[in-house]
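Q: What does the assembled structure look like for these inputs?
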Amino acid sequence: MKTILKCGMLFSAADESVQKDVAVVVEGNRIERVCPVNEADTADARVIDLSDKFVMPGLIDGHLHVSMNGEANGMAEAPFLKLGDIAYRAMNYVKADLMAGFTTIRCEGDPGFIDVSLRDAIEKGLAVGPRMQCSGISLSSTGGHGDYHFNPDIQGGEFCSICNSPDEARAAARYTFKYGADQVKLMATGGVMSKGDEPGACEMTFEEMKAACEVARFRGKTSSAHAHGAEGIKNAIRAGITSIEHGMLIDDEGIDMLVEYGTYLIPTIIAAYRIIQYGKEAGIPDYAVEKAELCLKNHAEHLKVMVKKGVKIGFGTDTGTPYSHHGEQAFEFQLMEESGIPAAYCLQAATKVNAALIRREEELGTIEPGKLADIVAFGGNPLEDGMKSMMDCRFVMKDGVVYKE
Ligand SMILES: [Zn+2]
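A:
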């Protein structure tokens, strides 16, 4: 049976326009056609009235963690949890993402391949959640952003493979792909929540990252690099990385290289914003609050330059980090707009741009005939009423199935 969505406002994301009073005809799990409402044949069709809603393609969160949900210091607690505990919690977290309009999520590092297992369970219909692009086990250097065990008898662990040479990075990348990862995640520089490192400092070397990116390329897979410091960002870009995550301490040369290499930048403004907003009083470690302040200081200015120069800016939230909860990450849209990113582009970043980032632009990211029926609707028009409308998800269809109405 066909489903006809009567849309008061439709933002297809193919361009920046909003169409009024159109129908989206869905057959099975695909979009069959988009036409004026009065031309849609409603005989024998299920009709869903979204005439007072803002309809757009399902959102894609390009950076989150399904193993955490805003704990004040999740990285410190992680070694005390069993993988089963984490996996069961994750089932609820991804459901919250879906209900907020995120029909696809890109997992940027979780322990024990729980992201891969959850992805497969959702695909088999054993759990409810978004489409998932998974990193499996990330790669970090000793003492790096992903090396969070502080017992000298434990090296690495369930969250990261510890690599200290190109050969080790190559082996670790092969390992994560062996168990079903869709991409490889590298820790190029220090981070905010990690104890004892500096966001500006390089951690994995160019040679190590090149070896891991090569493994991804051989398999037709993508890669991403957690990178704050300018030198680490440039090393990752040269190494052939698909996307730079955070990128908050970038310099002009780095911005030009993003353009030259066609590398994506995922800003995750909300991650640093929430850490500063809640602060030490809320139980976030002092060092993390200080590092977040350093990182966020010039981020908006850099983003303005990136918009001007035509950097491919995607949408990602780092949901799971302190006080960034699953299902509430659409606040990032407001922060992006406040940083000078044009409103229509913010919506395209989370749809069309991110679909290309995960190499699924043939099937996802816009509302056009032939694409998969991932369609969501919001209570207001974010292009006129402000980006807060993106927090008000009223309708979710994924793969032709309605999850929220
Ligand atoms: Zn992250």
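The pocket of zinc ion is lined by residues 63, 65, 108, 318 (CB under 6 Å).
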